[in-house]
User: Fold these one by one.
Assistant:
Number 1:
Amino acid sequence: MPEDCIFCKILDGSIPAKRVYEDDATIAFLDINPRNPGHTLVVLKRHAEAIADMRVDETGRLFEAVKKVADAAKEAARADGISICQNNGKAAGQVVAHVHVHVIPRFNNEGPPSMESILQVKKLADQDLGRIADAIRASIGVESYSPREEMRMARKEKPEKKEEKKPAKEEKEDLDDDFEEFSVDDL
Ligand SMILES: [Zn+2]
């Protein structure tokens, strides 16, 4: 653990914090600069700087804790909604270099409407969207979809030949289902 990590110091008890939850993988405590009452930080116990430094199982454990804290903070603060924010790297506004998730109770009419709305919408041509989608798929290891598949997803149609799903292709088909919730119109 780096000596100057404030979250590691909270973890070892050398800096006090208002702890609200703890399990073997995570700890949650109130942010000392709350954006709203109930603003809580959910922190991985192992010192990892950003999401890229986490193991997949750790991301799962972290979000299990986020779910518990989000439900409880919403109820405790009598909030109308919850924003969940997770920043990685200075470019993204990460201040403490120990991976953490902000859980922020939100109230009607307080604005801004969402955390991502602090960035302006960028108008991207369909071919540019296609290029970035291809790059993300390639990085994850998902095969490119055929133009026909793209059209089907854009129209939000159900997959053809659903009954012929083969076990070997299950993982890809599951991803396929997730992508169905998005269309070019949503972007
Ligand atoms: Zn740390």
Number 2:
Amino acid sequence: MINNKPRIAIYDFTDCEGCETKLVSLREKLLLLEKKVDIVNWRLGQEYFEAGPYDITIIEGAPITRHEVDLLKELRENSKILIALGACAALGGIPAIMPEKDRKYWYEKIYTSQYAPRGIDAVPLSAYVKVDFSIHGCPIDENEAVRAVEELLAGKTPSYRGYSVCFECKQAGNPCRLLENKPCLGPITQGGCGAICVSGGSPCYGCFGIRDEANIPALRKILEKFADEKEIERYFSMFHSRTEDFNKNKEK
Ligand code: SF4
Ligand code: SF4
Ligand code: SF4
């Protein structure tokens, strides 16, 4: 059980800050939450900050410089609970799409060979430190963030939804893309977003992370019926180029 008025810190590494913007958009809910917690460090949301240790540290973004990696390790040491906020932090996400060889090409093309890049490969926070829970999404669903923090405040371990995006997609009444020979990663993706992309006419690219019991080889077999390897790779590499589950199942 966490102390009364737990101290929360919100940090960001390299990312677009879209997930933090979702937290800001909570407005009244955030103010209500602030009656139960002290947000003592949040660069994007307030001017004052207090040093650690913290009860809960929420981190958005992927660490892509040595300085960010060192800060991540320091925050882990100074936090009872560490939460990854959004796909960049939980999966490597968008910053992880480009491999090092391609980065080198674009660095040179854009900044000339005089530029000395400091960037390293973007990988999930969990590649460096223990992550206690991930609030998934690109961007996150802000209500899922509130749910996770409230469960922690109640002394519980937050849980993931017990269903895939397909369940929410069926609830929304969408026709299934796979039955129309269109790719979709819904069957292997953790639910919680309400199948927002599919309802809006787009495929699911899996930003909520891969479900524990996901059968990736089975989905690949279905996709292979109507999509070539390059297209399948494009889907899986959108958010999962650096996630262990995808890479583990790649050869099957
Ligand atoms: S997960 Fe998506 S919305 Fe959130 S910070 Fe990363 S790129 Fe931005
Ligand atoms: S469209 Fe995608 S998310 Fe919806 S049921 Fe089919 S596979 Fe699942
Ligand atoms: S439908 Fe898929 S890609 Fe879209 S928000 Fe949900 S999990 Fe992410």
